[in-house]
Specification:
The complex is a heterodimer of chains A (306) and B (266).
Chain A lengths: L1 H28 L3 H5 L6 H11 L5 H13 L13 H36 L4 H15 L2 H15 L11 H31 L2 H8 L4 H38 L5 H10 L3 H29 L8
Helix pairs in contact in A: 1-12, 5-6, 5-8, 5-10, 5-11, 5-12, 6-8, 7-8, 7-10, 8-10, 9-10, 10-11, 10-12, 11-12
Chain B lengths: L1 H17 L1 H4 L32 H36 L2 H15 L3 H12 L3 H27 L3 H8 L4 H37 L11 H10 L6 H28 L6
Helix pairs in contact in B: 1-3, 1-10, 3-4, 3-6, 3-8, 3-10, 4-6, 5-6, 6-8, 7-8, 8-9, 8-10, 9-10
The chains are: A mainly alpha (306), B mainly alpha (266).
Chain lengths: 306, 266
């Protein structure tokens, strides 16, 4: 177990390092970051001074070495716009995004897994057709449109919920629903198909033959065996969930990591972009590691090996 | 049922895009301030008008053109590039395979949309660059799926037999292996198509894609957002068109997967 964890952590560190290097290369090959950031009418003398001060006049390998050295110490430089430590700025916004992600994952599990189980157990009935239709539509409706329509109905028309911001429970509802919608549709579909597969297995027949009650057969014998693909997909989708947060946070003015990244990109504030890349890919990698560890607990047949 | 619905909606979207000039005989860019913010059903404007008095129906239809064009180009580019890389990685196992899979890991550790947006920020905006950035973010799925398929196909008897008969590596790869992985490529392409359309709209919505006044669904939604309190139709119709198109293509993709390759889960 320890060897496995160590090797996975080393792999994770490598992936994060490579993605940082890739973004660093893209940013530097894309042109002069100072010129991109500065207003058009700035004087050449000022540009040069700014460049000198931030170290953009040094050869690229030197800049890269300095970047890697800084990144290892958690130093991504100063935000060009806010004049503050870029990583600090990003980490400040992380809890808001994690709160949003956690509440939509919770919502997904509460809605999607029971929905998938229901549609599988009641196969080829009205329940199944309605549920399947719902998931197909849920997968096709883009989150940002759903968000705008929810704002129109619940904020503009009914005035029940605030349009955005963070602080109260009411403000958490719409962003979580939007973020959970797409995610739920996929999880529900997968739950249905893996449940159908498991319901046809011999051990389910045995359990029924023993006279176990149907709820017990479904909950203990079928769902638990269907859990692995569901957890795998959930883990893989967390990355896209963080991507979805980019749009959802922008629509609902949620002060999280995604919105900060969009603003940093719009402002060409590259130190913040790099720090955000680091935090996002690290978060994703850690979540996937946790998912892998969860396997062993869900299914003792899975042995974790390096 | 699902298959026919998918084919019907997808065909309708294609027809709407192709016949846009005839279905809405108004210039989608022609503004008319006297007619601004008319609700749906206004004379001459079935879906109403926007803040500049431009006809919304014409803009939604021309938006379909742009969305389908970008989606189709991206699917072709990613299928060719990702498919080729996957073929090579699966066939020449040693370092190309490992290198490709590491690269895929790196890319998958980063949200698709954020990656495309970052590339767009750096290479600049414009139609060609949007297709480029979506492709750079989207090829990974093909590469992974094709590599996995190649790994199993190349062990099959007919491939081994062809190799034993002295067939060259290139011929072996393209004549014997490729036709057997082609169904997977088609299935992935159909499932990716709607994802690309939605991603393009999302990127344009956030201001990193197609710029106004060009009628793209994403940028129309961004404009509609500013007028949500006075003109719901500006956000409702472009988004409905987008959702419906995505639904049709998804259903079509599901059907293709069930028919061509029931094992595949993407």
């Amino acid at each position: 177990m320890r060897a496995y964890l160590l090797s996975r952590l080393a792999q994770a560190a490598l992936v994060v390092f490579l993605s940082l290097s890739a973004v660093f290369a893209m940013v530097r090959l894309g042109g002069d970051p100072v010129l991109l950031f500065m207003p058009m009418d700035i004087q050449a003398k000022d540009v040069n001074e700014f460049r000198q001060r931030l170290g953009f006049n040094d050869p690229l390998p030197v800049q890269y070495a300095r970047f890697v050295g800084g990144a290892l110490r958690g130093d991504f430089g100063e935000s060009l716009r806010y004049r503050r430590d870029a990583l600090g700025l990003v980490l400040e916004r992380l809890p808001a995004t994690l709160l949003l992600a956690a509440s939509s994952v919770l919502l997904t599990l509460v809605v999607a897994v029971p929905l998938g189980v229901m549609t599988a157990v009641k196969r080829n009935t009205v329940v199944d057709y309605a549920g399947t239709l719902g998931t197909v539509i849920g997968q096709a409706v883009p989150g940002f449109w759903l968000g705008l329509m929810l704002i129109y109905v619940f904020s503009v028309r009914l005035r029940w919920l605030p349009t955005g911001g963070m602080g109260s429970l009411a403000q958490l509802i719409m962003p979580s629903v939007v973020l959970a919608a797409f995610f739920s549709a996929r999880i529900a579909r997968l739950t249905r198909s893996t449940m159908l597969e498991a319901l046809g297995e011999d051990y389910v027949l045995t359990a029924r033959a023993k006279g176990l009650s149907e709820p017990r057969v479904v909950a203990k014998h079928t769902l638990r065996n269907s859990a692995i693909p569901i957890v795998t997909l959930a883990g893989l989708e967390i990355g896209q969930l963080l991507g979805g947060a980019v749009i959802t946070e922008t629509i609902f003015a949620w002060p999280g990591l995604g919105r900060l990244t969009v603003q940093a990109l719009l402002n060409r504030d590259f130190p913040v972009v790099l720090a955000a890349v680091f935090v996002i890919s690290a978060t994703y990698t850690v979540i996937n590691l946790l998912v892998d560890i969860l396997y062993g607990w869900l299914d003792p047949r899975v042995r974790l090996r390096a | 049922m699902k298959a026919w619905l998918g084919i019907g909606i997808t065909l309708a979207a294609i027809v709407a895009a192709a016949a846009a000039p005839w279905l809405a005989p108004v210039d989608p860019l022609a503004s008319d301030f006297a007619q601004s913010l008319r609700p749906p059903g206004a004379p001459g404007h079935p879906l109403g008008t926007d803040q500049l008095g431009r006809d919304l129906l014409a803009r939604v239809l021309y938006g379909a053109r742009l969305a389908l064009f970008i989606g189709a180009c991206t699917v072709v580019v990613t299928a060719v590039v990702g498919g080729l890389l996957g073929l090579i990685a699966g066939f020449v196992e040693r370092w190309p395979s490992a290198a490709l899979m590491r690269l895929a890991d790196v890319q998958l550790s980063f949200p698709f949309i954020l990656l495309a947006m970052t590339i767009n920020t750096i290479v600049g905006l414009g139609l060609r660059n949007i297709i480029l950035s979506l492709s750079a973010a989207g090829w990974v799925v093909y590469a992974r799926v094709v590599r996995g398929e190649v790994l199993s196909v190349k062990e099959r008897d007919f491939v081994q037999a062809a190799a034993a008969l002295g067939v060259g590596r290139a011929r072996l790869l393209f004549r014997h292996v490729l036709p057997n992985v082609a169904p997977s490529i088609i299935v992935v392409a159909s499932l990716q198509f709607s994802q690309f359309i939605v991603a393009e709209a999302a990127i344009s919505f956030l201001g990193f894609g197609v710029q106004p006044p060009t009628p793209a669904w994403g940028s129309m939604l961004a404009e509609g957002r500013d007028f949500l309190y006075v003109a719901w139709w500006l956000a409702a119709f472009p988004g409905a068109a987008l959702a419906l198109t995505a639904l049709g293509v998804n259903l079509l993709g599901d059907w293709l997967r069930d028919t061509l390759d029931p094992k595949l889960r993407v």
